[in-house]
Amino acid sequence: WFIDDSCAIVFIIYSRVLYYYFIIIELKGVILYFMFFFFFFQAEDGIRDAQESRGLGDVYKRQGINAEYGGCVPSNVRRASRGRASMMMDAMAMQREPMRLITSHDPEVREEGLEQLKGMSAQSLTEILATLSYLAAESPLLDVRQACAEAIGAEEQEMQVSPVSSWMDPGLFWHSRLTGKQTEVLSDAFFASGRVLNMERLMGLHPEYLEAFQRTHRAVAYGSGPLPVSWRMYILILAAAHVDSHCVVELFQHEFREHGGEKAWLAGIDFAPGKLQKLLPVMSLLAQSPWLLTAEHLEDVLSAEQGDAWSTGEFVHALALMVTGDMLGKISKGCGLARESFLVYGAGLDLARSDSGNLIELGTSTTPTAGEGSGLDMSGQTQEVFTKLQAGVEKFKNEEELMTDAFGQCDSASEGATKVQISQDLSVYVAEHTAEHTDFDCSSKASYGIYHVEDFPWDSDVAPRLDRYYTGIGTLLDQEFRTIRELTYNTFREIEGVDTQPFRHAIWYYSTRIMGLFHDDYDYREVNLLVNIEFKKYLKKVTCLPQETTVDDFTNVGYDLPVSEKVHALLIAVEARKYSSLMYGVRALNQYVNNR
Predict the structure, then answer these.
(1) pLDDT tens, 489-508?
(2) Taking a C-beta distance cutoff of 8 angstroms, is the pair 334, 570 a contact?
(3) Distance of CA 273 to the CA centre of its chain
(4) Higher pLDDT among residues 253 and 19, named by residue
(5) For residues 284 and 269, what is the distance between their CA atoms, to the nearest angstrom?
(6) What are phi and psi of 21, to 5 degrees?
């Protein structure tokens, strides 16, 4: 706005300590425009590069967890007089300060924020009502929930988290049902980003796994690395779109915008740089048929002769992002994950609510010991697996069956190809690279064969090469895989005292088997002993064609397991799928490097 032949411009700059600084510059016309464009773009670029995010939704916290203004100066402020603008900005800063403090890891700082919240005027509270309502329901911290509920005149007991999954009873995720470890891990997520995502709540059913996943994800998506953060978010969008996951795509679209991404790219891959477009053929194979990936597919990506070439380090970083986005998409489709409420409401859409007819009931609240198992009403097949686990799987093996035969009999390849269905709004990220899914066929005479893992193993070849090209990522991924494979509560259907390692390993090795990976040190007879046909169908659908997964698939997995155990099995399967894609991706990269 113009005042007496001079002009005032308001710049808002985010500092690393989350404070807002307001600079009012008053200059003459011609100098004004020069300074405006130079300073604005330089500041914006500098902020994006220097502000390292600590997790999904970090920008949400940097904005004071307040979507009222979206981190920008409202138009009425821009049109106001200089004095009024200054007062309004001071008021905004005062409103956000308690929000910043109450998300602190330090209890004393948090208490200071809660005290400031109590002293705010009714008008100020009204202006941050959306934020207070969110925290009163979603914060894992009891003191924050109580204070925010009191501020809006509600009872803390009335406020509950938004539905995490449209296929699950919301009560499974109520704060009162969480264990101390779950609350601790979800609180860490809250301290890092100012909110807890539905994906984090779902993974939080198994908090040790969530910790391992978050370490890897924060490093790949937000830590040091060769790719800009906006590019990382875009690659995650592309990977999630390949499995038709709206909720994951929406989340990373938000992160992409908040980290300075070009908005035009969100119109589709055709609007993104050619260098990113080169990833699509590789991404399509990783999503559907990773065993077909060869060094020739990497030629267009890595060869300097093709222009816009990726360095080896950049490609490995992109590979880690592609398999992560693919995995998150598969999780969301495999358990009916709900869209984030802050994104849905912000887009003016209705939040998907659970249909009571489709809810999965919670497991029994009691935890009987193995000796008391007869009191539980198990289905015949569930009882059969339970008996095998208790007695020992070795007693039930057919000694005449060879391991190689068992490997082939674990799964039968479907005839023909299945067209992968992608929603129209997400197809812009896939373009003409929408693939057809064809099952891995052990007897195929095609150009691929069984991947004998011992010929190019994870421990001595794949993980070290990941570490070499992208420091530390191989080690983090290895920890993530080991955590989910070895995670156990020594319970089966909530019966204590059961060694479930054979069951967990059967899920892992079946999920890698349908990707064509053969482990010489595993007895594949155990897969057919412990994983029945219905369970195989669910695992295969989630890992190969997640778009087709329905609530009936999740409800009827073949065993009457409680939700937390189904989620555990799902996480094992998608991590095994992620592991398989990395095995093929790094093997193809090694072939390319050796052929140069």
Answers:
(1) 999 987 899 999 999 999 99
(2) yes
(3) 25
(4) 253
(5) 13
(6) -115, 135
